[in-house]
Amino acid sequence: MSLAAPFTDIFGSPPTALASAPGRVNLIGEHTDYNDGAVLPAAIDRYVSVALAPNDGSAHRVRSTRFGDTTERPVGDPKRDDWSDYAMGALWKAGALGWCTGGMDVLIDSDVPDGAGVSSSAALITAILRAAADSAGVSVDPADIAKHARAVENDYIGMPCGIMDQMAVGLARKGTALALNTRDLSYEVVEIPAAWTFMVIHSGIRRELADGRYSVRFEECRHAAETLGTAALCLLTDAQKDAVAALPDTLRKRALHVTSEHDRTLAASAALKAADLDTFARLMSESHRSYSEDFEASTPEIDALVADAVDSGAKAARLTGGGFGGCIVVLVETAIAEAWITAFLDRHPGTWRV
Ligand code: GLA
């Protein structure tokens, strides 16, 4: 739906810019992005769209098509743990970059579920930054938008995420995956073979990145890296790899996951390019085992869903995103995909297709 007409109805004049960004699913490469490693996310066919315009006032007015009222907050208002924080953070950054000077009116429409680990917040922040730049007549490189969007999460929201989600929602296209090196932001867009289908299924367990467990893992990785004498846990020398075994148990397990996940992700990108389904599937399964046992970011319910997905004919499945709930991503041969998911959802009433 175009937001121009509803925006004009609500705020009294037309928007100066419209923009949108998709959600994303990570195929493999979990918690590698803030450790200078590889990731392989793909866009999903769900979008956050925004319309905006300057309002000549000193407050931002933010409205979502999901809720019936407009939230009004002063320019520069700090985070207050409200749904409008992501919009406020994006506008704060747009203001700091000179893309808006006073208050802005923003209308948001989204079918990207939140709390599902499919980057609804990165998509919202990215869409607002794109629209704000466009409204100011500024042309911005997508990688720079991604860096600004990450800064909103890190500095305004207080979530110490890496840059995978922001790069994915800014650069991935439907039907492709983004093989991204998070150290230098070089990337390759890789076609997903037509015979492969990635299904995204919500486990029914809601997750909140800001609930603290993500940050605990972030700190554990930082601690492990410091102890090993590096800033890049994914890029250890042979001597540093040998030293992993001597880390305290928790740090050792976190480091084992992150370093092996980086290697798996590089191998998975190569397998995707070669359309090597069996290798890709094996790497996804190993990734889930590592994420669950070494990184301890899964739950027994999610482990059971992953196991049943494979037992019932999927090639592989794994928990995707920041961990502790949200979605699994399942690799199924396209020929059986629809029949497979119908039967799977029937067997697991609390789950749904994203
Ligand atoms: C969240 C974060 C990302 C990344 C993933 C885990 O989505 O926002 O930066 O760390 O978790 O891979």
Molecular structure report:
There is one protein chain. By secondary structure, this protein is of the alpha+beta class. It has two domains: 4-191, 2-Layer Sandwich (Ribosomal Protein S5, domain 2); 196-353, 2-Layer Sandwich (Alpha-Beta Plaits), CATH 3.30.70.890. 42% of the residues lie in helices and 22% in strands. It contains eleven helices and eleven strands. The chain has helices spanning 4-11, 85-96, 120-135, 142-157, 164-171, 213-228, 238-244, 249-273, 277-294, 300-311, 337-347; strands spanning 17-28, 38-54, 59-64, 71-74, 104-110, 176-181, 187-191, 196-202, 316-319, 327-333, 352-353. Strands 1, 2, 3, 4, 5, 6 and 7 form a seven-stranded mixed beta sheet that branches. A four-stranded antiparallel beta sheet has the order 9-10-8-11. The structure holds alpha-D-galactopyranose. Alpha-D-galactopyranose binds next to helix 5.
CATH architecture of the largest domain: 2-Layer Sandwich
SS-based class: alpha+beta
CATH class of the largest domain: Alpha Beta
Structural shape: globular
* Number of helices, counting only DSSP H or I runs of 4 residues or more: 11
According to CATH, the fold-level topology of the largest domain is Ribosomal Protein S5, domain 2
Determine Rg (CA atoms, Å).
Answer: 21 Å
